[in-house]
Amino acid sequence: MDSKALHTASSQLIERICSASTHKEILDLHVEVFGRNGQFNIWSKEIKNISDVSEKKNYGKLLNEIRAELERAFSDAETKLGKETVAKLPLDTSIPGLKPVVGHLHPTTVITRTLNAFFRYLGYSVYEGPEIETNEFNFEKLNLPKDHPARELADTLYISEPEVLLRTHTSSVEARAMTKEELPIRIVVPGKVYRNETTNATNGAMFYQYEGLLVDKGITMADLKGTLNALVRYLYGDDVKTRFRCKYYPQVEPGAGLDIQCTFCQGKGCLVCKYRGWIEVLGSGMVHPNELRNCGIDPAEWSGFAFGLGLDRMVMTKYGISDIRKLYSGELVFQE
Questions:
Q1: How far apart are CA 253 and CA 47, in angstroms?
Q2: What does the alpha-carbon distance between residue 145 and residue 138 come to, in Å, rounded to a whole number?
């Protein structure tokens, strides 16, 4: 087919597209033009029969131009038909407007608000503190001696060594509350913390923690275990399996780690739980008498418990996110 005939045939098709009166008619025409056995494929196959290189090049260029014109004609026809359909609809001013889509909350925000609601029900207040912290509240009042490994440069990001740093845990806010507030105290502290760590699937240099503190008269380890078991079942359901293991933390005595059975492999062992079958979600224990004294509280009269959980890991186990880096990479799809 020569160029003149090709122009004539394409013009006829464009006229038919522009005069289409229904969406079905436009769809049928699209199949007729661009389908497997459509007219455009027939034109394209003729290029192999052209022996002259220059003529073949011009024919190919013309085909591209015609394809663009046909696609534009289909688009214009759909737009025109849509506007005409809307114009024919009766106007009802009583119909509510469409609510714009504004996105959704980040999974960490969702879990934080869920935890806040749970602890508010138990009488706790949500407390905040500075992310740029002093050595006194980040370490000294929390019973971390000067030779403790956590105070080394390998773990802590100092702004002005050794007095000013980025807080390594939300426990610093715990120390501020016990120093400043009247007793008894019931607080939870969500917030960002910072560590000098290499980022991988389960660790980051910046991550979120969720701290809890209760100081009152007659508080025992039974109060701690009951609170934390209720919390985990509130988040994961009554079927979740938990265990407490003895752990050492300078701020508490005795100390305990709370594990949940891995929600990814149901305890069989996988990359997320490092083939242990269990994921540690928080550290806890009874507030150390030295910490109480450092904050001006008499341990003979008052006792309490504290816990701190890795909020990011709880988000990962709750929503099935296997890599912590996805939480802060800007990726909108969290579920693999």
A1: 84
A2: 11
